[in-house]
Amino acid sequence: MASPSPLFLLLILLFAILPSPISPSSINDTPSTYIVSVHPDAVKPSIFPTHSHWYQSSLSSLLSPSPPLLIHTYTGAAFHGFSVKLSPTQALLLRAQPHVLSLLPDRLRRLHTTRSPHFLGLGTSTDSAGLLKDSDFGSDLVVAVLDTGISPDRQSFHDRDLPPVPTKWKGSCVNTPDFPSSSCNRKLVGAKFFCAGYEATNGKMNQTSEFRSPRDSDGHGTHTASIAAGRYVYPASTLGYARGLAAGMAPKARLAVYKVCWTAGCYDSDILAAFDAAVADGVDVISLSVGGVVVPYYLDAIAIGAFGAMDRGIFVSASAGNGGPGALTVTNVAPWVTTVGAGTLDRDFPADVKLGNGKVIPGMSVYSGPGLAPGKTYPLVYAGTQAGDGYSSSLCLEGSLDPKFVAGKIVMCDRGINSRAAKGEVVKKAGGIGMILANGVFDGEGLVADCHVLPATAVGATSGEEIRRYISSAKPDSPPPTATIVFKGTRLGVKPAPVVASFSARGPNPESPEILKPDLVAPGLNILAAWPDKVSPSGIPSDHRTTEFNILSGTSMACPHVSGLAALLKAAHPEWSPAAIKSAFMTTAYTVDNRGETMLDESTGNSSTVMDFGSGHVHPQKAMDPGLVYDMTTFDYVDFLCNSNYTEQNIKVVTRKNADCSGARRAGHSGNLNYPSMAVVFQQYGIKQKMSTHFIRTVTNVGDGESVYSARVVAPAGMVATVKPEKLVFRRVGQKLNFLVRVQTRVAKLAPGGSVMKSGFIVWSDGKHNVTSPIVVTLQQPL
C-alpha cells in the first residue's frame, strides 16, 4: 500500500482542528460568511491603529495573494472578533490560528410576527400613581429595537414635551438620502442599519423595493418599536377597527433602532453587529423579535450577543417564535434572555360565516372595504375540489384558481405556503367575491385577524371541516351551497382572556430542558401599533391602501411589550440587574384568565400548561413591587454552562471569560442556576422505583426591610416536594437568603420513548407579596 501523500496528511490535520459548524463534506470552493470569535485576551499590536487594520492584516498574511475583505468588525462591546466571507479551506486555515476561538457560520433568521396598556393595567397618561408615574414613563431609558427599521414620521415617535436626550447616550443617527439625520429627535435618539452580512450572501440589495438605510420598508420594525415605546396617539385605528388611544408600554422612553432584517431575512453577522453597536451606544433594553433554529449557545449569535449585553447590565427580551402549538418549538432559549410567548387581549374582531343552512360559524377579520350585500348569500366553493392540482388550489397559491370555478363565489382556502392575505389576492384576481380562510389541524382553533383585500374571514380547523362537509353534502337535485360573511367590527370585554395564542411557540426547552421556556407570555394577538405610510396594511404590493396603524399578530408583538415594561422597571429600580427584572416579571405573573380559571390554550380550547405560558402572563403593576427576586451574576451563568457540560473553550466563546469547570464549580447540576422557575427531567432507566432531585435557590429582599416569608409548596401531582427552611426572616432590604426544594417521585409506566410532564409551584408570602415559582418535573422513558 502506498504511503499517504503530504496533502492528504494536511487535510487530516485540518479536519482534526475543525469545529462542529464546518464538516469535511463542505470542502469545496464555494465561499460562505463566517463570524470569527477572537480570544478576548488577544491584544492588538500597537502598530495597527484599529482592530479592523489588525484583522485585515492577519487575513492578508494568512490568505494571500487574494485575502477576503472584512464584513463587520465587532468592537468588543458585546462580541470580540469580525465576520468575513471565506472558502471552507480558508476557514480551516483561519481556525488554526492561536488567537481564533471559533468560527460560526452566518445563519439566516426570520421575523416572529391600543388595548394593551389598558389590558395590562397601565391606565393612561393622566395616572397619578403606579408603574408609569413611578418610572416617569421610562423617560431616561433607551430601548433598542433590532428589527426592520422604523418610519420616523409616524405620530407614535414625536418628541413633544420630552426632556433633552439623556447625557449618557453615545449613539447617533446615520445620514442617508432617504433617512436624513433630522429624522431623529428627542424620542428617536439613534438609528443605524446593518446589511453587510446580508449583501455578502445576496449581493447588493434592490433599492427600488427597500431602503438601504434605517427606514422601514416592511412595517414590522415600526410596529414593534411603537409597542415598546410609542407615544400617546388619539384617535388611532386600523381601517376603523380598534378605535381608541394608542400607546406603547414606555411612552417617554427613548428609541434606538438598529435595522438588521431585509427582504431575504436577518443574518447573524448583522444581528451581532447591531448588538455590539447597541451596547457601545449605551442602551438600557434590547428588544429582538427575530429567531431561528435552536443550536448550542456557542453557535448561537443571538445568545452570544445577548450575553455580552447582559454582562453590561442590559436587559434583553426576545420572541419565543411562532412555531406553536407543537412542543419543542420555542426559540431564543438562553437563560440570560427573557423569552416571551403570546397571549390574547380581551378584544377581537368577529366576522362570522353564515351558511345557507342557517349555521353560523365564528370567524375573525379586519376587512374594511366594499362589503357583501346585506341579507344575500353567495355561491360557496372549496378551492381544493377544483379540477386539476388539488393541493395548490386548496392553498389558493398564485395562478392555481380557475376563474370559471371561482368567479362570483365565496371561496374557501386552506392555510399554508403563501401568506394569508396573499390568498385573498389570488381569489380576487380569479374573480372570487369573498374568501373563507380555514386553519389546518396543526393551526388548531386560533384565529388571526388580517387586513384582507376582499371580504374575507378566518375560521378554525374544526369550523373549516364543518364548512367542507356542508359543501360536499350538496346533492345534484338540492340547492347549491351558499354563504355570506357578516363583519361585526370591534368587540371589547371578550371572555376568556388572556388565552395562550395558538401560534405561540411552546416548551420544553430544546437546548436546556432544566430551564423552563418560554419565561412568560404577553399580549401578541391582533395588536394595534404604528405602521409605515408607504406599506399597505395587507403587505401586498397591489394593495394601495395606507394607514397610520396596523393590526398584527405574533410573538414579535409580545416581545416589545415586555421590552417596554422592562424599561419602566429599570427606570423605577435603576439598581436592578437584568436577572432581577426578569425575576420580578416571572414571580408576579398570573395563570388565570378574566373568569378566574386557568388560561386556555387557543389551539385546543383546553387548559394551558407551563410549557405554553412559562411562569404565566406578565403583570406590570405587581412586578413593580415583587418582594423578593432571584438575582444572578455573569459567573452564575458560567457555572450553569459548566454544569451543562460545555467545554471551557465553548464557554469562552459565549462569555468571553476564562471558565474553570473543575472542583466546586461543577458540584451541582444545571437546574441549580438561580432561576425563578425550577425544572428537572428524570430518565427512567432500569427498575429504579424512586427518583429525587433538589433545587438550591437564593432570594434577595427588595420589598420591606423587616419581613418574614413563609413557604407554601404544591407538589406536582403524585410527587412529594418539600422546602427547607419553611420560613425566611429578612432584617433589611438587599439581604440574601437561601432555601432548598427537594422533589421525589416514582417511576411512571411509560411506553418506550414516552414522557409525561407534571407541574406544581412554590409561593413565598409575607402577607403582602406572593413570590411564585413553577416546579416542573418531566419523566422520560428511553427507547
UniProtKB/TrEMBL annotation:
One of its GO terms (cellular component) is apoplast. Residues 33-112 form the Inhibitor I9 domain. InterPro entries: PA_dom_sf, PA_domain, Peptidase_S8/S53_dom, Peptidase_S8/S53_dom_sf, Peptidase_S8_Asp-AS, Peptidase_S8_Ser-AS, Peptidase_S8_subtilisin-rel, Peptidases_S8_3. Residues 138-606 form the Peptidase S8/S53 domain. Residues 672-777 form the Subtilisin-like protease fibronectin type-III domain. Keywords: Apoplast, Glycoprotein, Hydrolase, Protease, Secreted, Serine protease, Signal. The active site is at D147, H220, S556. It is found in: Secreted, Extracellular space, Apoplast. Its main location: secreted. Belongs to the peptidase S8 family. Required for arbuscular mycorrhiza (AM) development during AM symbiosis with AM fungi (e.g. Glomeromycota intraradices). This is Subtilisin-like protease SBT1.5. It comes from Linum trigynum.
